[in-house]
């Protein structure tokens, strides 16, 4: 319960100040009655993604047809955009060595040799760039 300032009864948007005896008290307004959800007239765009966007723009909940159309659109879009998995790198490459590590396996001899070769080549490039006064970036090394 709020106590009013030393002003006459003051009207507020969501209630009013009322004098009760010697005390001014804030009385909130009665809650607004629930408005039943309005029925949407069938528009040519209802049941489509454009209709769904119209609902959003009008700041209203979408109708069931528009919601179903949008869900179907995104389901197809995600299926179309999703890249199929690439085949695993063959053993004897640096990527296969990293795959062995990700799976918690001991790398095979060919992959271990490929990793050693990669490290040798990387160190060689770092030394060559250091002599030239440049600094190598990890992404450029690959």
Outline:
It is built from five helices and three strands; from the N terminus they run E-E-E-H-H-H-H-H.
Please state how the strands of the largest beta sheet are arranged side by side: 1-2-3
Major β-sheet annotation? 3 strands, antiparallel
Supply the helix-strand structural class.
mainly alpha
Please state the average pLDDT score. Answer: 80
Helix content: 40-55%
Number of helices: 5
Order of helix and strand elements from N to C terminus: EEEHHHHH
Residue runs with pLDDT of under 50 for 5 or more positions? 6-12
State the end-to-end distance: 69 Å
> Roughly what fraction of the amino acids lie in strands?
5-15%
Radius of gyration: 35 Å
Keywords:
10% strand, 142 residues, single chain, 5 helices, mainly alpha, 3-stranded antiparallel beta sheet
Describe the structure.
There is one protein chain. A hairpin with a 2-residue loop joins β2 (15-20) and β3 (23-28). Residues 6-12 have low confidence and may be disordered. Helices cover 45% and strands 10% of the residues. The chain contains five helices and three strands. The chain has a three-stranded antiparallel sheet with strand order 1-2-3, with no helix packed on it. The protein has 142 residues and is mostly helical. α1 (49-57) crosses α2 and α3 (94-102) packs across α4.
Topology at a glance:
Elements: E1 11-12, E2 15-20, E3 23-28, H1 49-57, H2 64-81, H3 94-102, H4 109-132, H5 138-141
Antiparallel strand pairs: 1-2, 2-3
């Amino acid at each position: 319960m709020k106590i009013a300032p030393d002003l006459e009864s003051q009207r507020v948007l969501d209630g009013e100040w009322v004098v009760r005896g010697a005390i001014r008290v804030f009385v909130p307004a009665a809650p607004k009655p629930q408005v039943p959800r309005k029925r949407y007239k069938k528009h040519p765009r209802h049941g489509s993604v454009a209709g769904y966007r119209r609902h959003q723009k009008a700041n209203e909940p979408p109708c069931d047809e528009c919601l179903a159309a949008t869900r179907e659109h995104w389901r197809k879009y995600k299926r179309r955009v999703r890249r199929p998995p690439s085949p695993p790198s063959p053993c004897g490459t640096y990527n296969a060595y990293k795959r062995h590590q990700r799976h918690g396996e001991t790398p095979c001899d060919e992959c271990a040799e490929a990793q050693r070769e990669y490290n040798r080549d990387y160190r060689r490039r770092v030394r060559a760039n250091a002599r030239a006064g440049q600094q190598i970036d990890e992404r450029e090394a690959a």
